[in-house]
Amino acid sequence: xxxxxxxxxxxxxxxxxxxxxxxxxxxxxxxxxxxxxxxxxxxxxxxxxxxxxxxxxxxxxxxxxxxxxxxxxxxxxxxxxxxxxxxxxxxxxxxxxxxxxxxxxxxxxxxxxxxxxxxxxxxxxxxxx
Length: 129
Ligand SMILES: [Zn+2]
Ligand SMILES: [Zn+2]
Hints:
2 domains, single chain, binds zinc ion, 5 helices, Herpes Virus-1, mainly alpha, two-stranded antiparallel ribbon
């Protein structure tokens, strides 16, 4: 997920908690639910507070990684992390990869992603056209 989606999720979950709180207590303090409401409302609010916690964690993780894409497959690092392995960075060229894409490319932790042996493709010979 991208940062925006986490923020939308957080706002959405917060609004739902406020709605539940207000409809049961006519108050906007969700923590009052724990003192004054029935068990069902408590559980409902707890579930959404849990969702908010998860969204916050996701937001923190996506902040640390940013909205980067894998240099091998070109897909979002966080969104495809479950299928293609967690994000990792080549220490030589600072490019990000999914762990599995990195290995598939022939990369190793100590040898880098293969950039060390790549020809300098960014510096094309002007006479070679
Ligand atoms: Zn990848
Ligand atoms: Zn590299």
